[in-house]
Specification:
Number of domains: 1
Strand content: under 5%
Shape: elongated
Number of strands: 0
Helix content: 55-70%
Number of helices: 11
Structural class: mainly alpha
Radius of gyration: 23 Å
Order of helices and strands: HHHHHHHHHHH
Length: 233
């Protein structure tokens, strides 16, 4: 417990309240993994939150690094930072672009390339590596972002981005990453590797500043022993 935080008592009443508001359905997998022990199940749920928070913290620099790498490359190759208005985007991507512009204007704010780029989603950037853009974006432009070993492997890049988008969505929707889904170490390694495809320097920075490994390996708190009954006077 961090200094200054109030202490929480994990008694039967508070455990029942937590189960009610987190929902029995959401906690069912944790309770099953804990063999019916609600105290352990709640602690596992807390651990899932900690791991989700840690992984999201490194998905963020992945997303920012990728979108800026794409934006910088296409700005250079397609005649300026408003490349998205000069390049014929496919329907869903064009719709996403128009929605991003609307969000900027609704703030209200001046419509600048930096603001538009920041509004476009991870899904948008990932779809630029789909089959639809193989000849128009990947071959002439986007493969230059990646190391030589990946420049003929668009489908591998696309598959990895889809995988990490799914992970990002699981975290955003408070879904389970542990207790039957034993992939968090692989998730971590995949995120770092993907950042490294774009920038080894950013990868090293992220690797040196995140808390994932500590949270993956931290033991659960020990369950307190039940209090002994008072001895008769």
């Amino acid at each position: 417990m961090t200094e200054g935080q109030p202490e929480f008592r994990y008694d039967d009443k508070t455990l029942g309240t937590l189960e009610k508001y987190l929902s029995p359905e959401r906690l069912a997998a944790y309770i099953n993994f804990a063999r019916g022990d609600r105290w352990v199940a709640i602690r596992l749920y807390e651990r899932n939150t900690e791991i989700s928070e840690a992984l999201y913290g490194i998905i963020q620099p992945l997303e920012v690094t990728l979108r800026n790498a794409i934006h910088n490359t296409l700005s250079e190759q397609l005649g300026g930072p408003e490349w998205y208005d000069k390049f014929p985007l496919v329907g869903p991507e064009q719709d996403a672009l128009e929605e991003a512009k609307r969000k900027v204007l609704d703030r209200p704010a001046v419509l600048t390339p930096g603001r538009i780029i920041a509004e476009l989603t991870f899904s948008f950037w990932g779809r630029l590596f789909s089959d639809s853009y193989d000849k128009t974006l990947w071959v002439p432009h986007l493969r230059k972002i990646f190391p030589l070993k990946l420049q003929n492997r668009r489908s591998l890049v696309r598959g990895r981005l889809l995988q990490l988008k799914t992970l990002r969505n699981r975290i955003a929707h408070h879904e389970r990453l542990i207790c039957g889904r034993q992939k968090v170490q692989q998730d971590y390694d995949d995120i770092l590797e993907t950042i490294g495809w774009v920038s080894p320097t950013v990868k090293l920075w992220v690797e040196s500043t995140n808390c994932c490994q500590e949270r993956f390996t931290r033991p659960l708190p020990k369950k307190p022993k039940p209090a002994l009954p008072a001895l008769p006077a």
